[in-house]
Specification:
Helix content: over 70%
Shape: elongated
Oligomer: single chain
Structural class: mainly alpha
Mean pLDDT: 87
Radius of gyration: 19 Å
Number of helices: 7
Low-confidence stretches: none
Order of helices and strands: HHHHHHH
Number of strands: 0
Largest sheet: none
Distance between the termini: 43 Å
């Protein structure tokens, strides 16, 4: 569906076929954002003060966990445990998120898909459109 919408928006089929499958695998920026904010929420809910180093651990771990997250529903909750363990936060805090994660999952999926589409458009504009204008060598 994303590929069809990108092509309808004017992105070349070459850029779409190259960027979107790759982005669906590694571009999980919505998941990384969710895990970072959720970990800080859990820390505050338990009265734990995260210093700058703790926040940095949360952000780096959330980014790496998001890259490794599967593109399936509720996968963010599983990788959330990795982030909480790395930051020394209680993993029981995931229970606080269970009741609203069905909604947050849709939001982070929308962010992930939108990010893939934007990168596809940028790659099309910066790379593939220039390839179309590049001079060709004459055949001998």
């Amino acid at each position: 569906l994303t590929m069809e919408c990108s092509e309808e928006a004017g992105v070349s089929p070459e850029a779409t076929a190259f960027v979107l499958p790759l982005g669906a695998t590694v571009n999980m920026n919505g998941t990384a954002l969710y895990e970072s904010v959720a970990a800080i929420f859990i820390a505050q809910a338990y009265g734990i003060q995260l210093d700058f180093g703790g926040q940095l651990v949360v952000f780096v771990t959330a980014t790496l966990a998001a890259i490794g997250a599967a593109g399936i529903p509720e996968a963010g909750l599983v990788t959330m445990l990795i982030v909480l363990n790395a930051a020394g936060l209680p993993t029981e805090g995931v229970g606080l998120l269970l009741s609203i994660d069905w909604f947050l999952d849709r939001c982070r999926t929308a962010i992930n898909v939108w990010g893939d589409a934007v990168v596809g458009g940028c790659v099309d504009e910066m790379v593939f459109s220039k390839l179309d204008k590049a001079p060709t060598l004459p055949a001998d």
